Amino acid sequence: MSRDHAQSAERPAPAAGAPGRTRPDAGPAPGGAETPFLELLARGASAEAYEQPVLIARAEGLPAERITALQQAKALALRVRAELEGRRRREAELSALFETAHDLAGLRDLDAVLRAIVQRARSLLGTDVAYLSLNDPVRGDTYMRVTEGSVAARFQQLRLGMGEGLGGLVAQTARPYVTDDYFRDDRFQHTRSIDTGVRDEGLVAILGVPLMLGHHVIGVLFAADRRARVFEREQIALLGSFAALAAAAIDTANLLAETRSALAGLERANEIIKDRSAVIERASEVHDRLAELVLRGGGVHDVAAAVSQVLDGTVEFTEATAAPGRALESSRTEGHAVRHRDDWIAAVAAGDELLGALVLRGHPGLDPVDQRTLERAAMVTSLLLLARRSAAEAEQRVRGELLDDLLDARDRDPRLLRERAARLRADLDATHTVLAARLEGPAADADEEADARRRLWAAASHLAATRQGLAAARDGGTVLLLPLTPGDTATELARRTARHLGTAVHEPVTVGASAPVEHLTARPDTVAAAYAEARRCLDALRLLGRAGDGSAAEDFGFLGLLLAGERDIAGFVTRTIGQVVAYDGRRGTELLRTLDAYFACGMSPARTKDELHVHVNTVAQRLERVGRLLGDDWQSPARALEIQLALRLHRLSGGTPPPARH
């Protein structure tokens, strides 16, 4: 007997003599023997009630012919009743399926879809429990996703291997399976964990049908009772039909979840058109202006300015850290602009990443259409930011590759190097300084250190792009090639760079700079030698305990030779007295010889002229020329010490021979 029959059978039959009971008399009943049964059919009486007319007729001793006629009418009425019950049941099932399809079509959240599936399954079959499992292609099993009517926690957390338990068998074979008594059924593999979960839930009769997408099983839909029960063919077919509908709904929900972000803007635009047809022209104007901004390469502040005019207010783009945190997170989660006091906040996001916010100032009474306009502007802003980021990352890679080629001397064609640099708005013929930068903050682990290095490289690349220079990651730090403007020095540039990068990455950054270099493509090792000098300067800063500072090689003088790992004697001599050496070479003068004698004579012009056998005015003229070449402070104690050391190193390396001694 079906559940519908059982439910009908539970209705009590009217007692003898009760109102509404049809009592056959001794003679032919009006309308024949079928009359009482027609009244029972009209009332929708239970099946047991159809015995009453026959029993009463026998009790009253009616003729056998009358009783036989009543029995025949009863049999016919029961057949009619069964047919009507079947039709009503099929009608109810079809109605439920249509209602389910209608409900599922309106759902957009996958969890809501799955909950609706199991609720409908339990309601349609009238079972104690309904539940749904989904296949996990990564782990190769099927797991419990949603339950309805379940009370056992262990049952709700079950995972079934393919072929394990009734559900695993359904998932593996893609066929429905039913058992009247789970623990006595040996058609499927029993496991301890599954049997324990089923026993905790108290289930006995279980029906499982596959959720199919094409030829693939994506899960299993179950209906189960806590008592023995025979599931009829119609009920199995009904649950199978519902499972097919549910599988399609799950697939639709998944597709909607994947495309929700892309469709959100369209849906909001359509809602604006439907709700407020009067503002179509205004919405079109906003769309045209934003599209025009994107096509002509406008920035986020251009978008804010355009929306400010449309909304007749002040719209600003702010960083995520500067926007109200709770309102910003609410806007990102809901996908809508939210009110914060007298302002409106629209999150500018890409997936789960917050890029900033559009803030409409002092406009508390925002129209719904204007709210959607602000949201659309936030979406356009996120696209612009992502496009800018992609372009910046591509340019950073190109800048890094060019600097790597200059450092490694891979491409030594000066014309090609200049053309590549020109496309990046860099001039390799200008005077540059090579800077070596390194983070000084401690890292908790290798991943954190790698992340810090990436942030340093990104900050250095941005600085190089704005300064028309180059940047690349190298040797655990970052190397920059920046142009040196007139009046600027390598030391000042190094200190500014250290402060800028430290502020950008929120950690101390030490920067060592080379001396200014020119004609970067003249010799293959020009940039590499300058980088080596910058790294020695960086090492010297760290040895001196000046981490987080910036300095150039020229700041250390001869101390740089002592602190550096490699002794750059030629570089030190060139930086210190190189202009005097070059002057003597061009003019054939004896400025170096005069300098050496001057220091040997205790910086006395009178004794120097005797040493050189020249007039004192000649000594004065030569020293004046030296001052113009080396600077007015060349006789200060620190400079004089470095110049004397450079003179001696120059002689020892095969330069000007030492002067005659007393």
Give an overview of the whole structure:
It is a single chain. This protein has helices at 3-9, 35-43, 52-59, 64-105, 110-125, 153-156, 165-173, 192-201, 233-275, 280-295, 300-311, 325-334, 368-408, 414-423, 446-466, 490-505, 526-543, 559-563, 569-587, 591-600, 605-612, 616-630, 637-652, and strands at 129-136, 141-148, 159-161, 177-179, 205-213, 216-225, 314-318, 338-340, 343-350, 353-361, 432-439, 470-474, 477-483, 509-513, 550-552. With 662 residues, the chain is of the alpha+beta class. α4 (64-105) packs parallel to α9, α10 packs antiparallel against α11 and α21 packs across α22.
User: In this structure, how is the largest beta sheet organized?
Assistant: 6 strands, antiparallel
Q: So what's the overall shape? A: elongated
Strand count: 15
Q: Give average pLDDT, whole number.
A: 78
Strand order in the sheet with the most strands: 3-2-1-6-5-4
Tell me the β content: 5-15%
Uncertain stretches: 1-31, 657-662
Distance between the termini: 134 Å
Given helix and strand content, the structural type is alpha+beta
Instruction: Give the % helix.
Output: 55-70%
Topology:
Elements: H1 3-9, H2 35-43, H3 52-59, H4 64-105, H5 110-125, E1 129-136, E2 141-148, H6 153-156, E3 159-161, H7 165-173, E4 177-179, H8 192-201, E5 205-213, E6 216-225, H9 233-275, H10 280-295, H11 300-311, E7 314-318, H12 325-334, E8 338-340, E9 343-350, E10 353-361, H13 368-408, H14 414-423, E11 432-439, H15 446-466, E12 470-474, E13 477-483, H16 490-505, E14 509-513, H17 526-543, E15 550-552, H18 559-563, H19 569-587, H20 591-600, H21 605-612, H22 616-630, H23 637-652
Parallel strand pairs: 14-15
Antiparallel strand pairs: 1-2, 1-6, 2-3, 4-5, 5-6, 7-10, 8-9, 9-10, 11-13, 11-14, 12-13
